[in-house]
Amino acid sequence: MRMLTCGADALLVEVATLDQVEWLYGRLCQDRPRGVVEVVPAARTVLVGLDRRRTDPARLRGEIASLLDSPAPPGTSGPPAAATRAPAPAPAPAPNVTVPVRYDGPDLAEVATLAGMTPAEVIQRHLRSPHRVAFCGFAPGFAYITGLDPALRLPRRATPRTRVPPGSVAIADEFTGVYPRSSPGGWHLIGRTDLVVFDLDRDPAALLTPGSAVSFVEADPARARR
Amino acid sequence: MTAPRATPEPPAGHLDVLAAGPLATIQDLGRPGLAHLGITRSGAADRRSLALANRLVGNRPHAAGIEITYGGLVVRFARAALIALTGAPCPLHLTGRPVGMDAPIDVRAGALLRVGPPDRGLRTYLAVRGGVDVPAVLGSRSRDTLAGIGPAPLAAGVTLALGRESADPPVVDLAPQARYPLTPTLRVVPGPRDDWFTDDSLARLWACDYEVTARSDRVGVRLSGPALRRRITAELPSEGIVTGGIQVPADGQPLIFLADHPVTGGYPVAGVVVAEDIPLAAQCRPGERVRFQRYRP
């Protein structure tokens, strides 16, 4: 782990694996050091924003280091080792979300071909994977959902689409994403959901937040025909 | 005999937008603390100037005002109001009569305010006592121009309601501001990814002027100058970004992130402009130059 200077008002904590990101994000949410105003997980880093009137970077560095050294709180485990791919403990207190999906995306057949299996098997493997939101980014409410079956891990499409419809369920690398609204995108579209994952007129606006366990289920075919 | 009627509060009034100029948006202090949901802070690009305008009219710090980009705003006030303009100094006319920047101005009902192009700087802030009262989105009335969250940019024909909430009567008559330097020096804390660049490149970043390009906006000040070459050419996994971060995309031309920056990015950030100098960065206009000074907080 490295703690990098990020201006006078933040630290960027770099770790070796996404599991460690999830663990550290969870610990910083449970046990937020004084003066921390923002915690932003990403692929290999956690950005920690601070209020200079209440703490300073040197003090915060020490507190984060001791979080990593201290015995884990009950019900959780210690920081996952860099070498393992064991699932991290349920990190942040975040609600579980069920996403009903029609697996009829335009890239489903191609994903099946690239993964060397039938489309039905792609669907089964996606349904069975233990999904969890690792972090958000790209657009408001866009969640990088980790836990994808290793057999389905593919690089992004060579040519991104200029317009991906909202509600598209897509995969790339180790992630699944649900497009909150129409946007360009380079992920493989395997299905579509009617669940609105981001809605400014709803509280909470974002359904998929870091730490949320996500269950993808097959949408009721009768309802799906709308 | 009829019961005495409660005196109804007078309506807070509104203003009518007759012209918006190149870009005018409603801004307050933004939406802090939501970056983990993919929502950036947004808010006034030059928060110091908005704060001053609010103080001059006795508003609370979180009151929403109008961020005017390169002048051009024309508004009519339906009722008497107390206003102040700060930031980039513009010629101001109130129903034909010149008025000054950085001071509270009493406005009569029906008065027309015309904001000309600034002599220096880029962004001017209009505060009205009581604040601009549009519906808040996720706790803020700011327009996030990248995500499209918050009230739409102003356009001719739009009517904006004014609020009632204010603090105490203003006590400051005039708050003269230093002139914006033509080539501002921005203090920069190196990192988090300065080690991804060659020593020569970093030396140029500290030594050379960079020109502000026309592709600059509320997301960032895009610069043109000596390219920064990478020592580490690996792909950087996306990581959190802060306002003031100097990101270097593949072409080596740096940009300084402002209020509407994306929450994460996949290009290395060589240094971060200190918070105190971000108002200066936000006032840089295309064609001007900036300098960076290495700074240890």
What can you see in these coordinates?
With 226 residues, chain A is an alpha+beta fold. Chain A has five helices and 13 strands. In chain A, the strands form four sheets. A four-stranded antiparallel β-sheet of chain A has the order 1-2-4-3, with helices on one face. In chain A, strands 5-13-6-7 form a four-stranded mixed β-sheet. In chain A, helix 3 crosses helix 4. Chain B is mostly beta strands and 297 residues long. The mean pLDDT of chain B is 94. In chain B, the strands form four sheets. Chain B has a seven-stranded mixed β-barrel with strand order 12-19-16-17-14-13-20. In chain B, 8% of the residues lie in helices and 29% in strands. Chain B has two domains: 148 residues, no CATH class; 110 residues, Cyclophilin-like (Cyclophilin, Beta Barrel), CATH 2.40.100. The chains are: A alpha+beta (226), B mainly beta (297). At the A-B interface, strand 2, strand 3 and strand 4 of A face strand 15 and strand 19 of B.
Quickly list its features.
heterodimer, A: 226 residues, alpha+beta, 4-stranded antiparallel β-sheet, 4-stranded mixed β-sheet, 5 helices, 28% strand, elongated, B: 297 residues, mainly beta, Cyclophilin, 2 domains, 29% strand
Helix content of chain B: under 10%
Side-by-side strand order of the widest sheet of chain A: 1-2-4-3
Largest sheet of chain A: 4 strands, antiparallel
Structural class estimated from helices and strands of chain A: alpha+beta
User: What is the helix/strand order of chain A?
Assistant: EEHEEHEHHEEEEEEEEH
Total number of distinct structural domains of chain B? 2
Radius of gyration of chain A: 19 Å
Number of helices of chain A: 5
